[in-house]
Amino acid sequence: MIRKCDGRDLETIYSIINDAAKKYNGFIPKDLWKVPYMPLEELMHEIEGGVVFWGYERNGELIGVMGIQHVKDVTLIRHAYVRPSEQGKGVGSNLLSFLCKQTTRPILIGTWADAGWAVRFYENRGFGLVSPKDKNRLLKKYWSIPESQVQTSVVLADQACSWEEMNGR
């Protein structure tokens, strides 16, 4: 079952993110890796900034989370994490499909360039990498991240979105 998360889920969201994010260790720049990967204060800041988390619940337990954030004229998919023991079972796919139906705006997803498994996950679900030039412009326009993260990230866009039309945005 997919449901909107609320304040009672904060500790579980925190746990899922930090448990699943361990996979990034060694794939992202050392200066951007930290433990925990997303401190509780940062998670709360993301929620206060408009990220709405949805969770996948099985047998009464939250096992995956994914955020959606409307920024300017696009929708961002943010912080997609599934407990490692539940990965590969459709949790992330179901969350992504559900969230994509929650907007009519173009959808953008940012992830680490060296996290090939994450890039492939989105590509296999209809998203495509934008050009390096568009990536830099989009990351600076729609995300608030350090320059070192801009340089080591990629952006994927819903294939239904025409980036020729969006270039003026």
Commentary on this structure:
With 169 residues, the chain is α+β, with helices and mostly antiparallel strands. 34% of the residues lie in helices and 27% in strands. It contains seven helices and seven strands; from the N terminus they run βααβββαβαβααβα. The protein has helices at residues 10-20, 40-48, 91-100, 116-123, 132-142, 147-151, 163-166; strands at residues 2-4, 52-58, 61-71, 74-82, 107-112, 127-129, 153-158. It has a seven-stranded mixed beta sheet with strand order 1-2-3-4-5-7-6, sandwiched between helices. Strand 2 and strand 3 form a beta hairpin. The protein is globular. The termini are far apart.
| End-to-end Cα distance | 36 Å
Strand content: 25-35%
Rg, nearest Å: 15 Å
Helix fraction bin: 25-40%
The biggest beta sheet reads: 7 strands, mixed
What's the architecture, going by CATH? 3-Layer(aba) Sandwich
* Low-confidence parts: none
- The secondary-structure element order is EHHEEEHEHEHHEH
Q: What is the tally of beta strands?
A: 7
SS-derived structural category:
alpha+beta
Q: Summarize model confidence as the mean pLDDT.
A: 93
| Tally of discrete structural domains | 1
Tell me the number of helical segments per DSSP (H or I, 4 or more residues long): 7
What does the overall shape look like?
globular
The CATH superfamily bears the name Gcn5-related N-acetyltransferase (GNAT)
CATH T-level fold name: Aminopeptidase
For the record, the CATH class is Alpha Beta
